[in-house]
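Our preliminary data section would be incomplete without showing what the modeling component actually yields. Below, a chain of 236 amino acids is followed by its predicted structure, encoded as tokens that our downstream tools consume directly.
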Amino acid sequence: MIKLENIKLGYGSRTLLEGVSTTFEAGTLTALLGRNGAGKSTLLRAIAALGNLDGGSIELSGDNIDTLDSEQIARRISFVTTDKIRIANLSCEDVVALGRAPYTNWIGRLQEVDREIVADALAAVGMSEFARKSMDAMSDGECQRVMIARALAQQTPIILLDEPTAFLDLPTRHEVCALLRRLAHQEGKCIIFSTHDLDIAMAQCDMAAIIDSPQLIHRPIAEVGEELSRIFGILS
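Predicted structure:
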């Protein structure tokens, strides 16, 4: 689904990753882990074609990302950032409808099928009753669910999320990650999310991708206890 081939990634003069080759498969939920400043956001942005590589290549479903135009990428990857969306008078339904942009006609008009997809996406995250509610009148957890619904409405096989549990209380963090796990397993999506919540990652994820500069350790979550202990100073 996502193939990294000998990639090199840096930030300014600093090398974050070098010589990294691995594959992220469909139907898996992966926690992207690493200390602050390790390059988690930089890696996600590179996979989403929002940042440049210093070397190597990235393939999406067998196609080199450099050969895909913006619309093709938008039909393969949806990206949920950590930014809070608080736009007055913008309803949840309107935000989720933005996910249909790669498929609408040249004037961006939603067809009936698009409206059905938006409704289904809101239902999938348990937010149907909030469809007409303004985003600036909602909690952080509710807003995060809406942003995930927007990604679902985009109907991409790959979903990337940068710190989706940031600013959420503990019960909501577990709810959001359980939702991501269900989407990966039931809909066969390849989902990668960066997080500092190691306990939630261990409980909910299939795989861990740990940035241990300049390496990326990518293994089943149950097999990375030693690395977590070494990098984060916790008991394995």
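The chain has two domains: 1-76+158-236, 85-155. The chain has a mean pLDDT of 90. Preliminary results of this kind motivate Aim 1 of the renewal.
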